[in-house]
């Protein structure tokens, strides 16, 4: 290496940088020979070299300690989603309990209220308010149309429910507008509406979370996971992301890379179907260690159609996806990866690290996916006996 | 690029390891590596593949880091929680986790340029490749690495001594 650093001296002794370059084998033959000769006759420089060897070894050892890091320590927005979901669920629960108490009270005072109503001889309302069922429906549709955590968890949303009139007044309204209903029926209807509203909210707010759960369920054995229903719009719109990192920050960014607990001794296939917001290599499918350490990764039927039309996050318009990635890991870290071009609908990969010493831990997780691209592909990971 | 297979086979593992050490999160590292390879596939010509890949990966991390300062603080918080969670693990796991935490703190204490040069060198990049990836002169890499290694070793040792002292004090209090 012809370099100004070569042979640089610190006074009469070698510069520390030169020593490291020499120990790293980065000096040319003549320079290295000159340094070697110098060290042979200079005790101080020999000490510098010994110290440098120690630093090199120590730093390598320290850096090795960084390899056993946990996955997914980067905060995900799902945490925030959970928080507000809990809040929303709590709000719904409070409203349901309040409504139940009110209606129970209404049932108990029914006779008294009928008497009061008859005494008052009020004329019927000129323009009756809309039927409660309709009102409930419109309320239930709101969270699905606007799956905003703040909106769902805000007090404003719960106000119509929590601002229930005083028991006798409310019961009077019930009696006036729905005299044919039994209080018990009303209570049941109320609970049903609350339940429906909660279900819709849950479905619309974190569509991707459901997919992730479905995907994980698919890893656990020979079970076909049904595609996630597409009747609710995704929480985050994006068929095209501006960057993989932006996608990672989206609420649906949590992939299913956590290795499942089940292990496979024979053939295991995990079919993960449905629409995924794929944004990371490890989003689609994973596989737990199997006896053969041979895995076939294939795209299921129809996936290629997606792959040829999906645009990568920063690719030119119309550019096709060129393939997908398979990666193998274990607790010690990454063991290798394979790039599978589009067109090849499957690839067989051996889950052993060619460079690993005998007896080294085998891969315990394989994942495949396309990065930075959406929507969806279907990936099958099959473990075969050797 | 026509040889995407070869590129991926050759550089995926070292790049992910480099990024994992750099970021402290394997999934994040995988994601950055993936983005790096996708960019490589769109690149018409790459003269020095290894230097190019490491440079792009480094820049991707840097770009994101600029806008994710809050997330990094959260990361530190979660890492702390992780360490606390590890306290319930068997002793060997705890020791390993403590060593990893010390290593992480020691590495983080290095200047950015020193840290990156050191991590790249550990992945086998030669001095010209490191210089190209980091935009430095090749002549300065030896000095950079010497400084980085010395500081890393000394910082780690100091932290370890401090941790041992804390542990000893805790043991004394516990017995009294």
Spans of chain B of 5+ residues with little confidence (pLDDT < 50)? 172-176
Order of SSEs of chain A: EEHHHHHHHHHHHEHEEEHEEEEE
Number of helical stretches of at least 4 residues of chain B: 8
Would you state the CATH class of the largest domain in chain B? Mainly Alpha
User: What is the distance, rounded to the nearest whole angstrom, between the alpha carbons of the first and last residues of chain A?
Assistant: 48 Å
Strand proportion of chain A: 5-15%
Gap between N and C termini of chain B: 68 Å
Please trace the helix and strand order of chain B, writing H or E for each element: HHHHHHHH
Low-confidence stretches of chain A: 1-7, 72-83, 117-180, 205-323, 341-358, 368-386
Give a topology summary.
The complex is a heterodimer of chains A (386) and B (176).
Chain A: E1 9-10, E2 13-14, H1 16-23, H2 29-41, H3 43-64, H4 77-108, H5 110-120, H6 132-145, H7 149-153, H8 155-162, H9 167-177, H10 183-205, H11 207-219, E3 224-225, H12 244-249, E4 268-272, E5 285-288, E6 294-299, H13 303-309, E7 323-330, E8 333-341, E9 346-350, E10 365-369, E11 379-384
Parallel strand pairs in A: 3-4
Antiparallel strand pairs in A: 1-2, 4-11, 5-10, 6-9, 6-11, 7-8, 7-10
Helix pairs in contact in A: 1-3, 2-3, 4-9, 4-10, 5-9, 6-10
Chain B: H1 4-23, H2 26-42, H3 49-67, H4 69-86, H5 91-108, H6 112-122, H7 127-134, H8 141-175
Descriptive overview:
The complex is a heterodimer of chains A (386) and B (176). Chain A is α+β, with helices and mostly antiparallel strands and 386 residues long. Chain A folds into three domains: 9-64; 99-205, no CATH class; 224-384, no CATH class. Chain A has 13 helices and eleven strands. In chain A, the strands form three sheets. A five-stranded mixed beta sheet of chain A has the order 3-4-11-6-9, with helices on one face. Chain A has a four-stranded antiparallel beta sheet with strand order 5-10-7-8. In chain A, strands 1-2 form a two-stranded antiparallel ribbon. In chain A, strand 1 and strand 2 form a beta hairpin. Mean pLDDT of chain B is 79; it is low at 172-176. Chain B is built from eight helices and no strands. Chain B is mainly α. The termini of chain B are far apart. Chain B folds into two domains: 1-67; 109-176, Arc Repressor Mutant, subunit A (Orthogonal Bundle), CATH 1.10.10. The chains are: A alpha+beta (386), B mainly alpha (176). The interface between A and B is large, with 63 and 64 residues.
């Amino acid at each position: 290496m012809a370099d100004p650093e070569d042979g640089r001296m610190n006074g009469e002794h070698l510069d520390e940088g030169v020593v490291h370059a020499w120990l790293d084998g980065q000096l040319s033959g003549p320079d290295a020979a000159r340094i070697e000769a110098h060290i042979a006759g200079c005790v101080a420089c020999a000490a510098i070299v010994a110290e440098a060897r120690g630093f090199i070894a120590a730093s390598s050892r320290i850096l090795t300690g960084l390899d056993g890091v946990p996955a997914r320590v980067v905060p995900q927005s799902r945490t925030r989603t959970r928080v507000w979901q809990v809040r929303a669920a709590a709000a719904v629960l409070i409203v349901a309990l309040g409504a139940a108490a009110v209606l129970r009270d209404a049932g108990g005072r029914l006779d008294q209220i009928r008497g009061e109503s008859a005494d008052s001889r009020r004329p019927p309302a000129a323009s009756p308010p809309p039927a409660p069922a309709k009102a409930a429906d419109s309320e239930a549709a709101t969270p699905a149309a606007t799956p905003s955590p703040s909106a769902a968890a805000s007090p404003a949303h719960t106000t119509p429910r929590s601002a229930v009139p005083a028991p006798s007044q409310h019961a009077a309204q019930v009696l006036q507008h729905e005299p044919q209903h039994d209080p018990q029926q009303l209570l049941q209807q109320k609970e049903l509406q609350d339940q429906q509203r909660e279900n819709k909210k849950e479905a619309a707010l974190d569509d991707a979370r459901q997919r992730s759960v479905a995907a994980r369920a698919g890893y656990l054995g020979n079970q076909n996971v049904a595609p996630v229903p597409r009747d609710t719009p995704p929480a985050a719109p994006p068929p095209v992301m501006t960057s993989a990192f932006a996608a990672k920050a989206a609420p649906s960014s949590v992939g299913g890379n956590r290795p499942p607990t089940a292990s496979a001794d024979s053939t295991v296939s995990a079919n993960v179907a449905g629409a995924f917001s794929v944004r990371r290599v490890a989003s689609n499918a994973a596989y737990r260690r199997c006896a053969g350490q041979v895995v076939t990764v294939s795209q299921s039927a129809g996936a290629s159609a997606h792959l040829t039309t999906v645009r990568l996050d920063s690719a030119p318009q119309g550019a096709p996806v060129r393939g997908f990635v398979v990666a193998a890991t274990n607790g010690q870290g990454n063991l290798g990866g394979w790039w599978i071009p589009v067109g090849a609908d499957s690839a067989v990969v051996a889950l052993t690290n060619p460079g690993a010493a005998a007896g080294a831990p085998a891969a315990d997780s394989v994942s495949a996916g396309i990065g930075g691209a959406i929507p969806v592909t279907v990936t099958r990971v099959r473990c075969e006996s050797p | 690029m026509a040889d995407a297979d070869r590129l991926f086979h050759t550089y995926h593992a070292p790049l992910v390891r480099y990024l994992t050490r750099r970021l402290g999160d394997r999934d994040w590292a995988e994601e950055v590596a993936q983005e790096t390879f996708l960019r490589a596939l769109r690149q018409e010509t790459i003269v020095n593949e290894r230097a190019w890949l490491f440079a792009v990966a480094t820049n991707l991390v840097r770009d994101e880091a600029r806008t994710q300062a809050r997330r990094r603080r959260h990361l530190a918080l979660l890492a702390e929680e992780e360490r606390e969670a590890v306290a319930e693990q068997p002793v060997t796991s705890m020791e390993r986790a403590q060593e990893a935490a010390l290593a992480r703190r020691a590495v983080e204490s290095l200047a950015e340029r020193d840290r990156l040069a050191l991590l790249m060198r550990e992945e086998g990049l030669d001095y010209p490749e490191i210089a190209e990836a980091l935009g430095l002169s090749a002549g300065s890499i030896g000095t950079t690495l010497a400084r980085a290694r010395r500081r890393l070793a000394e910082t780690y040792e100091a932290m370890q001594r401090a941790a041992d002292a804390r542990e000893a004090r805790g043991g004394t209090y516990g017995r009294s």
